[in-house]
Amino acid sequence: MNLTDIGQIKELFGRYGFSFTKSLGQNFLINPTVCPRIAELGGVDENTGVIEIGTGIGVLTGELAKRAYKVVALEIDRSLGPILNETLSEYDNIEVIFADVMETDLKRLIEEKFDGKEVVVCANLPYYITSPVIMKLLEDRLPIKAVTVMVQLEAAERICAEMGSRNCSALTAAVNYYAKPKKLFNVKPGSFMPAPKVDSAVIRLDLFDVSPFKVDDEKLFFSCIRQAFSQRRKQLVNPISGFFGIEKRLLAEEMAKAEIDPLARAEQLSMEDFVKLYRIVEQNKK
Ligand code: SAM
Question: I want to staple 67 with a disulfide (CB 3.0 to 4.6 A). Which of 9, 31, 44, 244 is the partner?
Fold first, then answer.
């Protein structure tokens, strides 16, 4: 069966009485070139285990399974079960688990399902939880090599922005702490059924084995980043001094000593600057 053929998809939906749930971000891929590209650029081969988030009717799942050692796919919508039984019946290396990715212990899943093979994540993410899913994949310190996902173009540009550039954000800094992000290619709304209102893009995050940034108190580090970006167009001395109870003049002096411009805004800082700022906060906070 051709899972990118609109006629065949409609016939399938009719037979199983399936209708889209908009709130679950159900925009299914119908452009036949996109799924093979995600699987190939995601580094999937016969020695790789793949976690997919959100199967839909299995169009990407099948492309991953053709190349992978095994695919474990999480899908929240149980009504897709009978459809997937039919569409993925030819593969013996796919396991679909009906669960919410945000509630799933992925570390345990990796230990149990992939026989110690290298693991990557590939997905066309539901857009309503893009940032929480990406942060979960990174913060849980999973033994995964790379995350290759479709997201809204705007999110892709934010995540992959250069640190120190206008487009960067707290999410950019958080991602850069754990991984090296790269935008791979753009995807137009017409590639999906139903078509979303926005453009999309596929990004790849290559996770660091060990973060190049030495931070002992990650909670405080991320709190500094969040505060710095909380008033992104203003000098970051203001929110940082206010939130952490550090006198402005002292903070500005310490920043100057650390070779950070005391007049800088968050979007002008590099990752190394954020690490230095965190150390200043750690030593001087009330
Ligand atoms: N991979 C399919 C494709 O490309 O056509 C479907 C992608 S669609 C953008 C997102 C999928 O994620 C939907 O099937 C939706 O039901 C599922 N989903 C939404 N929220 C989820 C969650 N919290 N956990 C797991 N799957 C979820």
Answer: 44
Res. 192: pLDDT tops 90: yes
Q: Residue 150: which of 198, 100, 203 has the closest Cα?
A: 203
CB of 244 sitting under 6 A from ligand 1 = no
Is residue 256 included in any domain, yes or no? yes
pLDDT score, position 286? 87
Residue ranges in 140-190 assigned as alpha helix (H): 153-159, 170-178
**By the 8 A CB rule, do 235 and 265 touch?**
yes
Residue 10 lies in a domain: yes
Q: How many beta carbons lie within 10 A of that of residue 38, not counting itself?
A: 25
How deeply is 2 buried, as exposed, middle or buried, from its count of CB atoms within 10 A (0-12, 13-18, 19+)? exposed
pLDDT, tens digit (0-9, with 9 covering 90-100), for 59-103: 999 999 999 999 999 999 999 999 999 999 999 999 999 999 999
Which residue out of 5, 33, 38, 76 has the highest number of ligand 1 atoms within 8 Å of its CB and is therefore the one to mutate?
Answer: 76
The DSSP secondary structure of 12-39, one letter per residue, reads HHHHHT----GGGT--EE--TTHHHHHH
Residues 202, 277, single domain; the answer is no
For a mutational test of ligand 1's pocket, the pick from 78, 104, 124, 192, i.e. the residue with the most ligand atoms closer than 8 A to its C-beta, is 124
Question: Domain of 177?
Answer: 6-207
Quick one: tokens of 111? Answer: 């230990």
Looking at the structure, do residues 178 and 235 belong to the same domain, yes or no? no
CA distance 178 to 209: 9
Tell me how far the alpha carbon of residue 136 lies from the centroid of ligand 1, in angstroms: 16
Domain boundary among 187, 207, 227: 207
Q: What's 225's domain CATH number?
A: 1.10.8.100
User: Is the same domain home to 235 and 279?
Assistant: yes
